[in-house]
Structure formats: C-alpha cells, structure tokens
Amino acid sequence: MSETLGDAGPRRPVTLDDVARRAGVSQPTASRVLNGSARKVNEALRERVVTAARELGYTTNLSAQAVARGTSRTIALVISGISDPYFSAMAAAIMRQAELAGLRVSIAVTDRRSDRELELVREIRGHQPLAIILAGTGFLAPHPEDTLVDELRRYEETGGRVVLISRTDLPFETVSFDNHEGARQLARELAGLGYRRFLLLGSGTALLGMQQRIDGFVHGLADEGISHAADRILYPEFSWDGARRAIESLEEDTLREVELVFAITDDMALGAIAGLRSRGVSIPDDVAVAGFDDITTLRDIVPSLTTVHVALDTVAEEAIHRATTDGEVFTRKTVPAYPVLRESTPGV
Amino acid sequence: MSETLGDAGPRRPVTLDDVARRAGVSQPTASRVLNGSARKVNEALRERVVTAARELGYTTNLSAQAVARGTSRTIALVISGISDPYFSAMAAAIMRQAELAGLRVSIAVTDRRSDRELELVREIRGHQPLAIILAGTGFLAPHPEDTLVDELRRYEETGGRVVLISRTDLPFETVSFDNHEGARQLARELAGLGYRRFLLLGSGTALLGMQQRIDGFVHGLADEGISHAADRILYPEFSWDGARRAIESLEEDTLREVELVFAITDDMALGAIAGLRSRGVSIPDDVAVAGFDDITTLRDIVPSLTTVHVALDTVAEEAIHRATTDGEVFTRKTVPAYPVLRESTPGV
DNA sequence: GCGCCGCTGGCAACCGCATTCCCGCAGCGA
DNA sequence: TCGCTGCGGGAATGCGGTTGCCAGCGGCGC
User: Which nucleotides of chain C are near protein (any atom < 7 Å from a CB)?
Assistant: First the structure.
C-alpha cells in the first residue's frame, strides 16, 4: 500500500469508519464497541474492532461525539486566577474529585475581570459541558451581574448544571465554607489567648463571603465580651499589596495599640506581615497575625500562620456531586471551617 | 407561541438554524455573519442576524464547529500539578500569551503519573487542538516513553503541533531555560561572595533539566577554582519533603562543614530550610541557601531566597509562537536564566 | 416441524455547523 | 438594449459519531 511511502503531509486523522472498515464491520458496530453503548456486540467482532482500533491508533473525536450526543463528560471550572494558591488548591481538589467521578474538567481563568468572566461563560456554553462550576469570588461592582445570571440561566435551561463555590450572591446551587462560624471560632480562640485589641482587614471590593468573615470575627469577639472591635476595621484593596499598604499607612499611634491583625485571607495576612515588618514591628512579639484559608504552600512562612482551615476536598466533593446529580435541588450547602492556631499568635 | 408557557424541562439549545429562521435568512448566511468567514454579507442582513442571535442568546456550538472545520482555536496544556506554584505560574504565563494570540487553552494535569500523562494525551488528541504543550517535567523511569512519543507523533501527523517546555528528552519542538548557564552564573556569584563549601541537592528522579542545574553549578564553581564541589551532591526525592529529609539525615560533621546549600528548585530549597531549622541551624547566619525558579509566591519567605530567575513569559511566548506557526522547524530554543541574590546568601 | 421471540448487526437519519457550488441579480460598458 | 462581470444568498453536501428501527438468525416451546 501507499502507507509505506506516505509519511509526509498532514494525514487525515483515523476515524471510526477506518476502524470499522479494517475490522470488516459497520461503523455503528464499531461505535458500539469503542464508545460506551448499552447494546452488546458479539465477542468475536468486539475483539476485531478493538484490535483494529489499536493498530490504527484510533482516538474518539470528542467533538464529534459531543455533537452527536448533545452532551459531554466534561465539567467546566471557572476560577479567578491560576497562580493564586487558593484557587490552584481549589482547582486541584476539584480535579481530584472529578477524576474519581470519571469526568474531564476544563479550566478557564477570569483574571478577575468580570467582562472576561461573562465572555468565558458564553464560550463554555458553546462547549456544552455537563456542568459549570464557578469558583471565583464574584466582583459585584463592575458589570451588571444579571447578564451573567442570564447566561447561566440559559445554560441551565438547556440541561446544564451550575454550581457556585463560595459565592452566595447568585441564585444557583451553592457550596461555601462556613465563613462566619470559622471566623467566629477563631476570634473566640484568640480572645481566649488574651488578645484584646484587634485590627481587622476586610475587602474593599464588595464580596459577600469576605464580609462574612469580618462579621463572624466581630461576632466571636462579642461572644467574649469584646464589643469595641468594630472600630478598627479597614477595607483596603483585596490583595496582598492592598493589605501591605493599609498597614504601612496606619497612624503610628493606631499601630501601637494593635495586638493582633486579622486579615480575611492568608494572602492579605502575608501582605500585612510585610507591611508590619517594613515598619519595624516584630511578629509575633509586637503584633500577632492571623489569616483565613490555610493555604498549603505557606507552610514555610515564619512564624507559621494562625488561620482558619477550609476543607477544600469536601467542598470539591459537594460541588462535583451537585454537578452530576440532576433533577434534585440542593440550594445552599455550607462546609465547616475551623481555626488552626500556630506560631503567629502565641498569646499575650 | 408556546414560548411563553414552556419554561420547564431542558429546552434544546439555540442553534444557528434558529437564528437564521428568526432573521429570515438561510443558515449559511447566519454562519457567515456570526462565525468568521471570508465572505461578506449585506449590511442589512448582517444586522438582522446579529440581532436575532442576541435576542435568542445564541452561542456557537464549538464542538460542532470543530467537527465541521476539522480544527479548533484551542491549545492543550499538560502540566504535572496545578497546585505546584511553578506549574501554576507557568500555566498563567501560557494563558496570558494564548489570550494575546486569540487562543483558548485547556489545561490537563498529570499528577506526576506517566500513565495518566499518556492517557491524557490520547484524550487530548480526541479534541483535535491546534497544539499540545507539554510543560511537565517528564519522568523517564516508570513507563515506556516511546508510547507517549508514538502518540505525539500520530498527533503531529494529523497536522497538530507538539511543543515541549523544559523537557529536552523527546524529539519535538522544545523551549527550555538555560539551566546550565543560570546555575553556573549563580555559582560564580556565590563564590564571589566568599562561599567555598557547598552542598548540592539534585533530583533522585532522572530529569534532564534538573541535572543541568547541578552540572552548571559545578561548572561555575570550577570557573572560580573550586573543584572539590562535586563531593557534596545529594540526590533525594524530587520534592520539598525529599529535600527536608535529606538535610535531616545528614551526618552532624558533614552538616557543620556546609556554608551554603544549593537546591535545584525553590521548592526543594524551602524543604532544605525546613530541615536545617529543625536541626537548629540558623539561616543565613550558619548556613546560606539558594534555589532555582524564582517563584513569585515565595516573596514572603524570610529570609528572602536567593535563586535563579527564569523568564516564564518569554518561554510562554516562544511556546505559543511555536504552537501557532506551522511548517517551520525550530528545534530547540533556550531562554536565559539569571541569578537573583537576596538575603538568604548575604556572603561570608 | 412450525411459529414466536429475543438478540444483534446494519441501514439511514440525525446532531450543529462549515463550505462548495450554483444561480439570480444588479451594475457596467459597448 | 444586450451581454458580461461580480457579488451575495441559498440548496446541498460533508465532518465524525450516535441512535431508532428493521431484518435476519438462532433458540425455544408446543
């Protein structure tokens, strides 16, 4: 055959037809053998098809399959940023769970731009995945969320499932951490260690989950009879740098009064630490610091960071479960979060 | 119409046909308007089509488009792990460049299992992307690489492009850092700071790029007349924990002689630091430490880590360029890497 | 020995979109 | 006014795979 000499030029990919022909069966039969079908095929034929497929190096054209079936075994994950340790840990957890469920996952990154988020969702809709999981914390301000909601609604109407993680602002299936309770417990533990004068760093951007952490912390302090906490709450830009700058621009007097800084994320806690150090403050001797998220890659920070641990795997599992179980309506589910005390808050 | 009352049950997604019908044009015309076609369409019709599409919330079915066109604007990125800061930074860089080039990127994670890697490549082949970029450091040992090579070859034969990052062991387009030169320059700088007695941490798994870092470092020391360096090279497991354990199980006498530990990755350098600290060694006063990769998320480590900076964006750009430019053969390209001295190596 | 049923393979239609080809039409020059 | 050219719309076909349906075959019961 010309097989032997034809090594140049892009050859056409091997199709199911090729396999069928080589195995001497019809194309539907080959399809039934190679791609999970309910119908049985005679063992001898099955064997021939499998062999032919292997010899030819056949791979199912997943696009064609998706078109024909009208659906795919893929779930789409939308996150804010891939190099953010929180999101990458989340993505890893989701992928782990998805693999267990025999699902592919395709990741899309919004880069924290909500226009991009909308664009991505539209594009994803074009892929007709089984489900869309939105793990990015939504930024309410910039663009009309209704457009996004519309888009997601449309997607749901055509049989897709939408799952939100840590984002209770949209009317879809939601899985989130117990931000309020986690922060509250943390506050109580810290109060138990003798801390009394706190500085809280929230998010300048309106983020529901983040505000819950602030509220929970304040609530926890109130539980312990510390009621003046709400005086010292800052809302800098929601980032490492935002936290650092907030600390750096603090009045000297104000800073001197602070015993402990609680930031709503580990990332911001690190920014706060950087800011504190640039002002010559020693941690934890002068000021203690606590964060939220318990990010693994921060294990090497010195002093080790007191924070609130969130069960990513549980959240991921719940999310995948909701993504794959259709019909039922779960509404909102909350996963526990609990404080982890480390060296950055040794107590007074 | 029944439109008004039919709000229950999965409705069929809006297709191009629906749009065409509503706009009162033929389906090809709608196609030409909505998806980039060479042919022009009358402005009035174009308008009608666009409006109809918007009103109906039409989204191109990308799978169908891929089937019809036989190709897609997607590139597939294969990395070892998503929560590894190095890979997530790499992925972020690739996505940035891809977006500039108007490409989608779908990420697949091997979890460092080479069987999974093979499986993924087969699956990816089924998606018929424009290109496959393999950024994971290959693990040569476990499975016959030829199978992977076969698979990639097949993919190339059907018009796809394969690009490898930091992985010079396979016969495809390759972009990598100048590991050797980067490490060599670092060694020379450190020698210039007065360090003389080094401990090197390599990779127990055979990884070409990683070995180059060791070789380059040794070479650099030799440049400075330090020739006995090769005595103190350890090859622990290629991970944070591997490095930590290697340090912890060091003989007391051996440890006492060490002035500086060079690890082939920042990750391992951190493991080494953890190990050193657990043995009561102060950094950098007793022992200095240097790594490789210059991972951004480690900015908060104290003391800040001396390392070798790699230009991720340049690598990503080169990779995308190779992924999109067909016909030409680029073979192997090297991107510079240069040392960055920080607090972890103050000099003797 | 006949009829019925169940099993399994193949035919053909179909999924949603792109593209080729054909044809009508307007515009232009002669 | 006629013919030619060029543009743009539409019918038909194809992409790779799936699935409803029919037909043929073998097994079984009576």
Answer: 7-12, 14-20
CATH number at residue A135: 3.40.50.2300
The average pLDDT across A189-200 equals: 94
pLDDT digits (tens, 9 = 90+) for A30-58: 999 988 777 787 888 888 899 999 999 89
pLDDT of the residue at A327: 62
| A-interface mutation test, from B289, B297, B326, most A Cβ less than 10 A away | B297
Is position B341 within any domain?
no
The CA-based diameter of chain A, rounded to the nearest angstrom, is 88
Judge whether B278 is closer than 8 Å to chain A, CB to CB.
no
Question: Does residue B225 share a domain with residue B188?
Answer: yes
Q: A273 and B300 in contact by Cβ < 8 A?
A: yes
CA distances from residue A93 to A152, A316, B205 in whole angstroms, order as listed: 23, 6, 26
Nucleotide nearest to A32 (CA to C1'): D18
Helix axes B43-56, B27-34, angle to 10 degrees: 90
Say if A65 falls within a structural domain.
Answer: no
By C1' distance from the Cα of B65, the closest nucleotide is C17
Tokens read off for A151: 């888009």
Q: What is the mean pLDDT of residues A122-140?
A: 82
Q: How confident is the model at residue B10 (pLDDT cuts 50, 70, 90)?
A: low
Q: Is residue B281 part of a domain?
A: yes
CA torsion angle A69 A71 A73 A76 (round to 10): 160
A152 and A76 belong to one structural domain: yes
Q: What pLDDT score does A217 carry?
A: 96
Cβ–Cβ of B300/A12 closer than 8 Å?
A: no
Distance CA B311, CA B295 (A): 11
pLDDT at position B5 is 37
Number of domains in chain A: 3
B42 touches strand C (CB under 7 A): no
Q: Do A150 and B122 touch (CB under 8 A)?
A: no
Q: Is residue A261 part of a domain?
A: yes
Co-location of B239 and B136 in the same domain: no
B164 and B198, same domain (yes or no): no
- The model's pLDDT over A82-127, given as tens digits with 9 standing for 90+, comes to 888 889 999 999 999 998 888 888 888 888 887 888 888 988 998 8
B226 and B262 share a domain? yes
Give me the CA B163–C1' D19 separation in Å, rounded. 39
Asked if the C-beta of A112 comes within 8 angstroms of chain B's C-beta atoms, the answer is no
For residue B306, list its beta bridge partners.
Answer: B290
Enumerate residues 203 to 262 of chain B having a beta carbon within 8 A of any beta carbon in chain A: none
DSSP state, residue B263: E
Selected for mutation to probe chain A from B60, B88, B266 (highest A CB count within 10 Å) is B88
Nearest to B64 among A57, A67, A298 (CB): A67
Q: Quick one: what percent of chain A has pLDDT higher than 90?
A: 54
pLDDT value at residue A328: 65
Q: Give the CA dihedral B306, B311, B312, B315, nearest 10 degrees.
A: -140
Band (A3; pLDDT cuts 50, 70, 90): very low
Residues A84 and A198 in one domain: no
Q: How far is the CA of B20 from the C1' of C20 (A)?
A: 20
Nucleotide nearest to A67 (CA to C1'): C15
CA distance A209 to A216: 10
Which tokens is A18 given? 């090729």
Nearest to A85 among B13, B85, B150 (CB): B85
How far does the CA of A42 sit from the C1' of D25, in Å? 14
**C-alpha to C-alpha distance for A155 and A158, rounded to whole angstroms:** 5
What pLDDT digit, counting tens, does each position of B285-305 carry?
Answer: 999 999 999 998 888 888 899
What range defines the domain where residue B159 resides? 71-177+313-335
Which residues 79-98 of A have a C-beta within 8 angstroms of B?
81-83, 85, 88-89, 91-92, 95
How confident is the model over A65-92, as pLDDT tens digits? 999 988 888 999 999 888 888 899 999 9
Is the pLDDT at B83 greater than 90, yes or no? no
Write out the H or E segment, with its range, that includes residue B135: none
Tell me, what's the pLDDT at B344? 94
